[in-house]
Design a protein that fits this description.
The protein contains 14 helices and 12 strands. By secondary structure, the chain is of the alpha/beta class. The strands form 3 sheets. The protein has a 5-stranded mixed β-sheet, sandwiched between helices. The protein is globular, with a radius of gyration of 21 Å. The structure holds zinc ion.
C-alpha cells in the first residue's frame, strides 16, 4: 500500500510516493501561491507514479495508492481536512476541503496534518528520534513550528491547537506585537519574518550605547560570540534553497544591513554568514535566547526524552546546536530531565516521512489517523 504525500512547505511544495517510510519517488515544485498549486501538485504526482519501476504498480490507478497525505503550515481542522488559518502564500487553502479535493482529483481520501506535527512523527517513526515515545520538535524558519509527541501519540487537543503554538509563547513582555496578536512571541523576535525588525532594534540599541567596544559584550552578543568562537568555519556554503545571496564573494561578505539595503531576501542563514559583524552576533545571540526560551517552555510542558530542532539554519548545526543546548539545559527546572537536542539527518524529508507514517498507524498507536468520511 502506497501513499501520495504533499508537503506544502515554506519555499517548495514537496511531493513523494511513499510506502511506510520508504520514499519510492520524490520531487518538488516552487510555490506559486495560487490555487493552481493544487493542480500542479496533482500533475506532478501523476508523473511520479508513472516513474515507478514496477509496471504493475504504475498501471494501477495512482500506482495503487490508498490515501493522499497532506501537510500544511498552520492550524488544521482534521475532521474537516482543512487548513483553518493560512500563511499568505497558502491563503487559498484556508477553509478548502482537501478531502473533497483529493476524492475529486485522485479518487482517494485525504489525511491532513500540520507540517511540524508531520515532521515530528516522521523523525520519531523513521528518523533521528526513532522509537521515541515522548518528543518535541521546533522548526526554525519563516516562523517557528512546534509539535509534541506524548506517550507515543501526536498531541492534538480538543481543537487541534495543542503543541503547535510553541513559537507563540511570550518570551519578552515588552517585546513586539506578533502576527498572531500576542506580544513578545519567540516567533515575533526570532524568525525570518521578524529579522528586519529585530535587526533594527539591535541597531537602535547600538546607536544608543555608542560605538562597539570589547567591553560592550551586550551589543556583541555573548551567545553569538560564543557560537562564532565554537566554530571558526562558520561561513558555511549557501544552503540549497538558494535563498538570498548567491551573487559572489563580494556580496557574501556584506553585512546583514547591506544585504537588506541591496534588496536581498535575507533569512536566518544570512545571520550566520555575516557573523564578522557585531550586529549579526548580537542578532544570533537574541535568536538563540528566544529559541532556547521556547524550547524550555516545550520541555516544561511536555517532559520529552528528546528535542528535535530543524529548519534550514540547522545546516549550521555545528555552530548553533552547542550554544542552544547549553542555554536550554541551563534554564530547565532543576529536577527536569536534560533531553538531548538533535537535528534530523535529512531535514527536507521529515514531513514527507511523517505523512507516510500517518498513513500507516501502528498497533501501539504512535499516531491516531483522523476519521475520514
Ligand atoms: Zn505570536
Amino acid at each position: 500500500m502506497t501513499e501520495l504525500c504533499i508537503d506544502f512547505g515554506g519555499s517548495a511544495i514537496k511531493l513523494g510516493v511513499c510506502d511506510d517510510g520508504r520514499v519510492l519517488a520524490r520531487s518538488e515544485l516552487p510555490v506559486q501561491g495560487t490555487p493552481d498549486d493544487l493542480d500542479r501538485a496533482a500533475a506532478e504526482l501523476r508523473r511520479l507514479v508513472g516513474t515507478l519501476a514496477a509496471p504493475t504498480d504504475a498501471s494501477l490507478a495512482w500506482g495503487g495508492a490508498s490515501v493522499v497525505a497532506i501537510a500544511v503550515p498552520g492550524v488544521v481542522d482534521r475532521q474537516r481536512a482543512a487548513l483553518v488559518a493560512a500563511h499568505d502564500k497558502y491563503g487559498y487553502l484556508a477553509g478548502r476541503d482537501l478531502d473533497a479535493w483529493a476524492r475529486e482529483t485522485f479518487g482517494l481520501p485525504a489525511v491532513v496534518e500540520n507540517d511540524a506535527r508531520a515532521a515530528l512523527l516522521g523523525e520519531a517513526r523513521y528518523g533521528v528520534a526513532r522509537g521515541a515515545q515522548n518528543a518535541v520538535i521546533a522548526v526554525f524558519g519563516t516562523g517557528i513550528g512546534t509539535a509534541a509527541l506524548l506517550d507515543g501519540r501526536l498531541l492534538h487537543g480538543s481543537h487541534d491547537h495543542a503543541g503547535i503554538l510553541g513559537g507563540h509563547v511570550t518570551v519578552d513582555l515588552d517585546g513586539p506585537v506578533c502576527n498572531c496578536g500576542n506580544v513578545g512571541c519567540a516567533e515575533a523576535i526570532a524568525s525570518t519574518w521578524a529579522l528586519e525588525r529585530s535587526l533594527a532594534a539591535i541597531e537602535r540599541r547600538g546607536a544608543a550605547t555608542g560605538p562597539d567596544t570589547a567591553d560592550n559584550s551586550k551589543r556583541n552578543g555573548e551567545l553569538g560570540a560564543i557560537a562564532a568562537a565554537q566554530h571558526d568555519d562558520w561561513r558555511t556554503p549557501r544552503d540549497r534553497t538558494g535563498r538570498g545571496d548567491g551573487t559572489g564573494a563580494g556580496t557574501r561578505r556584506a553585512t546583514l544591513r547591506a544585504r537588506i539595503d541591496a534588496g536581498q531576501a535575507v533569512g536566518i542563514a544570512d545571520i550566520v554568514e555575516t557573523l564578522e559583524h557585531p550586529d549579526s552576533r548580537a542578532l544570533l545571540d537574541l535568536y538563540l535566547r528566544a529559541w532556547s526560551a521556547a524550547i524550555v517552555g516545550l520541555c516544561h510542558a511536555y517532559d520529552p526524552d528528546v528535542v528535535i530542532v530543524s529548519g534550514g539554519v540547522m545546516r549550521s548545526a555545528q555552530l548553533i546546536l552547542p550554544a542552544l543546548t547549553e542555554q536550554v539545559h541551563a534554564h530547565l527546572w532543576s529536577s527536569s530531565f536534560r533531553p538531548p537536542l538533535v537535528v534530523p539527518e535529512h531535514p527536507d524529508s521529515s514531513v514527507v516521512l511523517g505523512l507516510s507514517a500517518l498513513a500507516h498507524p501502528t498497533d501501539d498507536a504512535a499516531t491516531e489517523r483522523p476519521r475520514t468520511r
